[in-house]
Design brief:
The complex is a heterodimer of chains A (277) and B (352).
Chain A lengths: L5 H28 L3 E2 L2 E2 L2 H8 L1 H33 L3 H12 L6 H12 L4 H8 L13 H25 L4 H8 L4 H12 L1 H17 L2 H7 L6 H10 L4 H32 L1
Antiparallel strand pairs in A: 1-2
Helix pairs in contact in A: 3-7, 3-10, 5-11, 7-10, 7-11, 8-9, 10-13, 12-13
Chain B lengths: L1 H9 L1 H22 L2 E6 L4 H16 L2 E6 L2 H10 L8 E5 H9 L3 E2 L14 H4 L8 E13 L21 E4 L6 H11 L8 H9 L4 E5 L2 H9 L5 E5 L3 H5 L5 E3 L7 E10 L5 H12 L1 H9 L14 H4 L5 H7 L1 E2 L2 H19 L2
Parallel strand pairs in B: 1-2, 1-3, 6-7, 10-11
Antiparallel strand pairs in B: 3-10, 4-10, 5-8, 5-9, 5-10
Helix pairs in contact in B: 1-2, 3-11, 5-15, 7-8, 8-15
Classes of the chains: A mainly alpha (277), B alpha/beta (352).
């Protein structure tokens, strides 16, 4: 509508842009700029000393590792679930989709505490194991990386499924049939037809899951605690307990950077495949 | 003018209503002119402090008590940020945070001649920070709470390292008030004698197989015990009441090495314009009825020697010359001096 009058377009967009800049970009910029100051001068010294601390290194790698693991696992489980959902009759499909969405409507705190009920030493899982005679001593599951992984996977898997369902819905119906007519088995059809054609959904879902896992707070705080620190829980500890705003800013910059890099990498992955094919 | 007079004379009820309105209006304006004293304090047990201490004090002084709550580090940082125009008149801290505030020039010397209860305090509470910069208002012991049905009796801090406690211990995080005491006792229990308790960090690193998690707040320990995640944890005495409420078979260890302890202090903020009210509030806080009421509510153990507690309450307190005399207190200057090393040692070897 405004293509031939670019000025009008800019003018109309400017109040929103201005508000966004004033309310979001400027304060976040001020907050993050603290991370780049060393004795009043601009520098990367804060980052060097942050990564010099072995605990911080641990926390950084643990965060990346868990987020990557959650992303990969949710992609695998997500494709299985999404393919099943797309193949269902419309009535069944909407029922199953709402079941997938249901956990998103429960407060993350309640959802995470439910995991304590399940994973606790006298929780559902251990009681079942003992009831079946599979173990005498209850396993310690809480406050481990495994507990954080399970919590994050449950938290973000629905986003991956929804993203893949919408990608699969846009897939032309005939292509899978065409592939099998041409002699491809189901695995070959998936890898060479479905996967390349739905990669944008995978990238979108993957970005949400990875960024979400890196920046989640409640789940690692409750299921991991102070022993299994993640970047986000470490940041809150720095702000609330030790009042170390500078290193909290450093962590915030690392979190933003990690999210941007992950998003970029995933997008590159999608485009390079497209160019190859 | 006329109708008002008429109303007053014809309807006594309405007249009384208007009179009440006028009086309450004048009270409101009096309240505006009322003096106020701002106290920076811990968030824990605020209801009890309001009921037992602050509300009665407000009635007495015809002034208003405004509470600003938070943890040690957070509140100290706020005080420092507003050093030049302080809006807080008085603060309570752990002894070493109080000393940090004093070292940063944030405190004013307390005029103990204005504290009628000063002479009744145990000696350790009279000048814990030096130079009259703080007065102790409560003390607490730190010891190990353990499950009596799962474990044989604890007699030493060393018992925490027993192999049957694998994956069954929670210890306070380095950021908490209890951590220095745990480091000290870990050092002393195994024969360490250095002034900076250097061996404590090594010993806690060896405790790692037993450690389930590091707790940040007292309430977390209660949950961990209640959920059967842990069987033993070093805790402050002020948390013992909450732990007993779980109805689990728990006991408070009386260790061979003695109990570690800590003192909380009151300080007056430099530049306060309410020095008089601050001294009055401090004096009330130290008085026998308030100290007893706070102990009875299982909030704080008393440091006023006149306080007599029932055996039931004493069970939940660090109480009496005998208990208090046995407390091993880390001089706040020592904590301040070595805390940086403890944190880096902890982060490198215990928390990983």
């Amino acid at each position: 509508m405004f293509q031939d009058r670019p000025l009008t377009g800019y003018l109309l967009a400017s109040p929103a842009l201005l508000a966004c800049a004033l309310i979001l970009i400027v304060p976040v910029g001020i907050l993050l700029s603290a991370a780049f100051q060393v004795d009043g001068r601009v520098g990367l010294g804060q980052f060097v000393s942050f990564f010099a601390d072995p605990l911080n290194q641990d926390v950084f790698w643990r965060t990346l590792r868990l987020a990557a693991l959650v992303t990969i696992t949710s992609a695998v489980l997500g494709y299985i679930a999404a393919l099943a959902i797309v193949g269902m009759s419309p009535g069944k499909r909407s029922l199953v989709t709402s079941l997938v969405v249901l956990p998103l409507m429960i407060s993350p705190i309640a959802r995470t505490y439910a995991w304590i009920v399940i994973l606790g030493r006298s929780g559902l899982f251990n009681n079942t194991l003992q009831g079946l005679g599979l173990g005498d001593t209850p396993l310690r599951l809480l406050f481990t990386e495994g507990a954080v992984f399970i919590g994050l996977l449950q938290l973000f898997l629905p986003y991956m499924i929804l993203s893949l369902v919408s990608a699969l819905e846009n897939l032309p119906r005939d292509v899978t049939a065409a592939a099998s007519v041409l002699g491809a088995n189901r695995w070959q059809t998936f890898v060479r037809v479905i996967l390349p054609l739905t990669r944008e959904g995978l990238v979108a879902g993957g970005t949400i899951v990875f960024t979400g896992s890196v920046t989640a707070y409640i789940t690692p705080a409750i299921l991991g605690g102070s022993k299994i620190l993640m970047l986000e829980t470490l940041m809150v500890q720095r702000v609330n307990v030790t009042n170390d705003i500078v290193s909290a800013s450093v962590i915030a910059v690392i979190l933003v950077a990690t999210s941007l890099v992950a998003n970029d990498l995933l997008r590159r992955l999608a485009t390079s495949r497209r160019e190859r094919s | 003018m006329k109708p008002v007079v008429l109303t007053f004379s014809t309807s006594p009820f309405l007249g009384r209503m208007i009179a009440a309105a006028v009086i309450s209006l004048s009270m409101t304006s009096a309240a505006w002119a009322q003096q106020q004293v701002v106290v920076s304090t811990f968030g824990i047990n605020q209801d009890a402090f309001q009921r037992i201490l602050f509300k009665p004090f407000e009635a007495e002084c015809q002034c208003k008590v405004v509470v600003e709550s938070g943890n040690n580090a957070d509140r100290l940082a706020k005080l420092e940020a507003r050093k030049d125009s302080p809006n807080v008149d008085m603060a309570v801290f752990l002894d070493f945070t109080g000393l940090e505030a004093a070292n940063k020039g944030l405190t004013e010397k307390i005029d103990t001649s204005k504290l009628t209860n000063f002479g009744k305090l145990y000696d350790f509470a009279k000048d814990p920070l030096g130079n009259g910069m703080g007065v102790g208002y409560t003390a607490f012991g730190t010891s190990i709470v353990y499950r009596t049905d799962k474990l044989k009796e604890f007699t030493s801090w060393k018992d925490l390292w027993r192999p049957e406690l694998k994956g069954r211990v929670a210890i306070p995080n380095i950021t908490t008030s209890q951590a220095p005491n745990v480091i000290m006792m870990a050092d002393k229990a195994f024969g360490g004698s250095s002034a900076n308790f250097a061996g404590g960090i090594d010993k806690l690193a060896e405790l790692k197989p037993n450690i389930v998690t590091f707790y940040e707040r007292g309430a977390q320990v209660v949950t961990l015990f209640a959920q059967d995640e842990i069987w033993a944890a070093p805790v402050g005495r002020f948390n013992w009441g909450n732990l007993k409420k779980t109805n689990l078979p728990l006991a408070w260890m009386r260790p061979a090495e003695g109990e570690a302890g800590g003192v909380n202090v009151m300080i007056m903020i430099k530049g306060t314009k309410q020095a008089d009210l601050v001294h009055r509030l401090m004096d009330k806080w130290l008085s026998e009825p308030i100290q007893k009421a706070l102990a009875d509510a299982l909030v704080d153990s008393p440091v006023n020697m006149d306080v007599k507690l029932t055996p039931e309450v004493a069970e939940f307190s660090t109480y009496g010359a005998e208990d208090l005399g046995k407390l091993q207190l880390i001089p706040p200057a020592i904590t301040l001096q070595h805390r940086g090393d403890w944190v880096s040692g902890w982060n490198a070897r215990v928390a990983r």
